[in-house]
Amino acid sequence: MTEQHKIYDLFVIGGGVNGAAIACDAAGRGLAVGLSEMQDFAEGTSSRSSKLIHGGLRYLETYDFKLVRDALLEREILMRRTPHLVWPLRLVLPYVASQRPRWMIRLGLLFYDYLAKRKVLKRSEAIDLRRHPAGVALKSDYRHAFAYSDCRGDDARLVIANLLGAKRAGAEIWPRHRFVTAVRAGVVWRITLERVSDGRQFTVEARALVNAAGPWVVDVAGKMQIPVGRKLRLVRGSHIVVPRQWEGEHGYFLQTQDGRLMEAFPYERDFTSIGTTDEPWEDAPEKVAISDKEIDYMLAEVNAFLKKPVTRADIVWSYSGVRPLFETGGGRDGDLSTLTRDYSFEIDHEPGQAPVLTVFGGKLTTHRRLAEHAMQKLCAVMPWPADSPSRTDILPGGDVGPAGLEPYRKSFKQRFAWLPETQADRYVQQFGTRAEEMLKGADKLADLGPLIGADLHQREVDYLLDTEWARTVEDIIWRRSKLGLRLSPVEIGRLATYLKERPTLPQSL
Ligand SMILES: Cc1cc2nc3c(=O)[nH]c(=O)nc-3n(C[C@H](O)[C@H](O)[C@H](O)COP(=O)(O)OP(=O)(O)OC[C@H]3O[C@@H](n4cnc5c(N)ncnc54)[C@H](O)[C@@H]3O)c2cc1C
What we know:
- With 509 residues, this protein is of the alpha+beta class.
- Among the domains are: 4-45 and 157-231 and 341-391, 3-Layer(bba) Sandwich (FAD/NAD(P)-binding domain), CATH 3.50.50.60; 232-247 and 259-326, D-Amino Acid Oxidase, Chain A, domain 2, CATH 3.30.9.10; 405-501, Orthogonal Bundle (Helicase, Ruva Protein, domain 3).
- Helix content is 29%, strand content 25%.
- The relative contact order is 0.16.
- It binds flavin-adenine dinucleotide.
- The site of flavin-adenine dinucleotide has 37 residues, from helix 1, strand 8 and strand 16.
- Flavin-adenine dinucleotide (FAD) binds next to helix 1, strand 8 and strand 16.
- Keywords: Oxidoreductase.
- This is Glycerol-3-phosphate dehydrogenase.
- Its EC number is 1.1.5.3.
């Protein structure tokens, strides 16, 4: 069945971090915005990243200076815009005699510090691992290292924060609605969407379209008959998660035996995340999965550094994603890790015709900037406000006050002193100030409803269903939170039963 719906100024296809950020920026300019995502939000690449909000030290080696500078500047903007979801990470890069010379690393880090224009983050320094706490977990062969600052963040929740920002500004958000086709009818696009749950189709209209479908971008462009003049390379990256391997909040940036760089850092309080890989991926993006070879590679590389080896039996979780990279003539032959991670756009537009902007590539770190830049391109051909609100606005949950997250966390814990400390910490990290909305009217643990498992109560599940578009067990335990690391199979079953029995509001329509 096909039925007619409303006219948007801008319609965005893809609810990963880039589509969400574009919707947020456009709605913040006062435009009527719609966004459709065929799966759950962030179910594509945007929940499968290394979670670094970084300039990308490794990209200095491929002379991607513009990407590094732009990304470095974003770190502090995002720490202000979403302070609960982006936080500093001190990384330690051990010196390895057979790899990059010490002067080269020092010079690279000086350049990194120079490009960054830091206000909050600490500058880089040389450290002696024989005396520094970061040396304790490492084999005694490693004596010298460099420490420098980047950030890490919660990728999937950054997507939700941007969508909540878009919704706050009036955008309509359509999860689990597949874009089927779009036909240009003069100054509007006629867009057919399909509700995934029952196959019901309907049409919306928009004065402009954005294709932010990440690894599916070429497929989506085909459905609107827009030619794409570049070759897409899908590159798989995988991670393993193991119980926490060292004391302290620092991470390690490790030089691998094949000359790459790999991270290992504290994750979700009790765990360590290790990754990533760069492997060609020829199959459909949704089928991506970790291989035994990647696991062996990551274990061997991390164990070359750590005093206490990590084994296969330690792995509690693993995940994989695909990077949609585009061949632009750069990069070293055959070396996928050297293909550019920067974004680019193509805009298809003629006077009197509704435009479509296609987004290629991009990083989690640069999502805000990419959105601002995408809107600049569209504003050049549409009569829309030229100023982006995103440099100064604070996304929902981020309004912790000018003193920053830590004073807010302290006051939150005082006001909700009846919450166990780790649960209070998790709420602040996950929801920021929105935790107070979730806890409204509660003054003891029993007010949060039955315990499902770990520290997940029914109140939180209801809040995720009602305000964050969550529907399935996976939405809740792997994207809105990482409680999948803590829940037993019985507890996961309990959550599934609750979701089956609880009536939910329809998602849009
Ligand atoms: C292994 C790995 C590690 C990474 N590490 C980092 C890092 O540490 N730091 C960093 O800054 N970046 C990192 N990145 C890059 C970052 O994750 C991506 O740049 C970012 O997530 C891309 O977001 P996106 O919105 O473009 O794509 P996606 O998140 O993939 O979103 C595209 C969405 O479009 C939807 N879609 C597709 N077709 C349709 C359709 N027909 N209808 C409706 N919806 C559709 C998909 O379901 C998907 O959700 C990493 C990437 C990988 C793979």
